[in-house]
Amino acid sequence: MIEYLESKGWPIDFYMGCFYRVTRTVEEFQKEIGMAPVGETYLSTDPDRMTKVLLQAKPVCLGFKILGAGRHCGSPAEVRHCFDYAFKNLKPTDAVIVGMFPKFSNQIAENVEHVRAVLG
Q1: Residue 35 within a domain
Q2: Which residues contact 37 (CB under 8 A, 6 or more apart)?
Q3: pTM for this structure?
Q4: Residue 58, CB-side half-sphere exposure with 13 Å CA sphere
Q5: Any domain includes 3
């Protein structure tokens, strides 16, 4: 959709781009990976595709689901890697939206620390 809108030159204020394509049809999954998984699936190749699109878009872009809906929260290093990847693959004017569930740890402070470490 973002590529289409960019090709039309419409005056868009900003884009929001999900790092993972969660709307594939069964047929699309079968074509891409040879099977149709059950449930919500996050393919490792999706962030590369989306960040390429967001890098080429003129307006500010907001990337979301950078942690794969919690699938990449196995360790602080894994989370840090996701933040690092996001900021290295977006424009300097872009930002990320990160969902948090601070019930068992202070994810707000942890995420701030990840951003500070990555953007220094």
Answers
A1: yes
A2: 29
A3: 0.87
A4: 10
A5: no
DSSP assignment of 53-112: HHHH-SSEEEEE-TTTTTTT-SSHHHHHHHHHHHHHTS-TT-EEE----TTSS-HHHHHH
- In this predicted structure, what is the pLDDT of residue 118? 95
Q: How many domains does the chain have?
A: 1
In a domain? residue 55: yes
Question: Which residues face 95 on adjacent strands?
Answer: 62
Give the chain's length.
120
Q: How many Å apart are CA 111 and CA 94, to the nearest integer?
A: 17
Gap between the Cα atoms of 39 and 106, Å rounded: 29
pLDDT of res. 28: 73
State residue 38's pLDDT score: 65
Domain that holds residue 77: 13-119
Please list the rounded mean pLDDT of every run of 10 residues in the chain (120 residues). 94 96 77 71 89 97 96 94 98 96 93 95
Q: Is residue 2 part of a domain?
A: no
